[in-house]
Amino acid sequence: MNQLTPNSSLMPNSSQMIVCDGNEAAARAVVLARPDVVSVFPITPQSSLVESLSQFVADGVLGAELINAEGEHSVLSALQGACLAGARTYTATSGPGLAFMFEPYVRTPGLRLPMVVSLVTRDMLSPQCVWGGQQDAMSVRECGWIQIYCEDVQEVLDTVVMAFKLAEHKDVLLPVNVCHDGNYLSYGVSRVEMPAAGLVDEFLGEAAVNWHIALDPARPMAVDPLTGGTGPGGAASFVGYRKSQVRAMANALRVFSDIHAEWGERFGRHWAPLVEEYRLDDADIAIVTIGSMTGAGKDAVDAARDRGEKVGLIKVKMYRPFPREAMVAALSKVKAAAIVDRSVSFAWECGPLHQDVMTALFASPARIPLVGCIGGLAGADITGEHFARVIAATFQAAGGDIPSSPVWLNEHD
Amino acid sequence: MSNEIRLHGRGGQGTVLAAGILAQALAEEGKWAIAIPTFGFERRGAPVSAFLRVDDRPIRSLTNIYHPDVIVCIDQTLGRAVNIFAGMAPGATLVLASRKSPAELDLPPTARRLGLVDAVSIAMELFKRPITNSVMLGALARTTGMVSLESLARAMEGSHFRDAGLAQNLEAIRRGYDETEVLDLKESCHAYA
């Protein structure tokens, strides 16, 4: 590795207050995590993130090999090769870039490559749009990647660092998408605390080489062998791989919880790893949120409480694997819930998160009414007024008036 | 204290960067601020706006601003293209780049304070081009008193400028501060109404 230039802003000796947007926060987290290889291609609204990384490499602050690939398919293919050589790797993408990345994307979890890839979420085309929405990330929710959604810029910074530890954990060894909303988080500037670089080094420890698959001349082996069907090893070989992959996903719930506990102890910021319960204990109803809408949701809960309405909030942080036990426990505290999705499930005429909550309810003792809300598509705002409508509709649902189709929050905006 | 600000400008003038510098300067003073820009395809000359919310405690809502207490417009022709006063809160403060006199501006009747500066002329002298963001940060500081010139200068020191050096930008905020005319609208232009 080249000699790095000391930089007290990017690699502070003690924690430091800075002001930056979510894209820069993710890039700064990557610097702290000291990856070996970063491969990039710009795409709105991710571009400034990879521009920052390129700058950090050019300035000699980030000691990674930077590959400017000719497109996202090559970006991820290059990282697969780097991962197979034992490197810690990172990239970021969005919407159309993710779509172009799809072929290597679906292979990565089965190869058990512990990459971290930020998804700066964007609504999917068409119709043409360059703004935020979670349709891109939701479109790949069943590909076997771990998916985590962040609420604010600080959580982006902290979570990208934690994601490396999750991906590389021996009981997980899976790629992780850290999702942050296009526009509101990608470009939203706020005050955040940079952790001390040395403490991050202690937290992450030595990068764990993925020896399950990393190429080693002293240990020659075939990677990605032919399995299943009439291949050697037959059906059992493929089933064996899939079963262990599914088990690793389940393990991620426990491992991510442990990682959050350690983060809280070391850095004093205690994020909920799976779902966060906000003012839920004595609540009559709850709103379920995901991503950057959550802050406005919490303010709306406080406003409702001031009116004397017992409302709580359930924020989903880890979305894949879905934290079903934590969701069931949270839902069991209320008489009705609204789910606010920032994307749609074309199959179920609701949002994808709504679909997951419905499934979790099947494991619940009580089948409470749910209100499906879809908002924030293509950069639309989800404001306190929108949440007030969500809350009103949820109280009506608790009284038996359950809407049969989604409430489109920005339909008249 | 005013806590919701909307900045208007055109792509290339540094509106979004100005909002970021302002957030940094407010953080230097121990405040919490969030700044959310709104723009689409990157394009010079297209209308751009940015929202800034400031408070003495952490801010959770990452939402746009619909009823600003302060409106800053860093482009003197933008008012012909977009309604920069849309949704303005009654009693708001306006900080405008313009060569016109207050009486020549078509100001909303419920605005209460106006900061006016010929930002383009200052920018042309300093930068040889009409990049007015730093001048208007000085004008904002002078008109509202919500942030000090020292904090703005410290925030600028950590920023990356594409079109000019730090010294020129520091001079721009100082001149914006010094050359802004501040008027209480109840006693001036609305007296004619």
From TrEMBL, chain A:
Residues 29-227 form the Pyruvate flavodoxin/ferredoxin oxidoreductase pyrimidine binding domain. Transmembrane segments: none annotated. InterPro entries: PadG, PFOR_II, Pyruvate:ferred/Flavod_OxRd, Pyrv_Fd/Flavodoxin_OxRdtase_N, THDP-binding, Transketo_C/PFOR_II. GO terms for biological process: carboxylic acid metabolic process; response to oxidative stress. Keywords: Oxidoreductase. Residues 283-386 form the Pyruvate:ferredoxin oxidoreductase core domain. The keyword Ribonucleoprotein does not apply. One of its GO terms (molecular function) is oxidoreductase activity, acting on the aldehyde or oxo group of donors. It holds the Pfam family POR_N. PANTHER family: PYRUVATE-FLAVODOXIN OXIDOREDUCTASE-RELATED. This is NADH dependent phenylglyoxylate.
From TrEMBL, chain B:
Keywords: Oxidoreductase. Residues 11-178 form the Pyruvate/ketoisovalerate oxidoreductase catalytic domain. One of its GO terms (molecular function) is oxidoreductase activity, acting on the aldehyde or oxo group of donors, iron-sulfur protein as acceptor. The keyword Oxidoreductase applies. It comes from the Bacteria. The keyword Disulfide bond does not apply. PANTHER family: PYRUVATE SYNTHASE SUBUNIT PORC. This is Phenylglyoxylate:acceptor oxidoreductase. It comes from Paramagnetospirillum caucaseum.
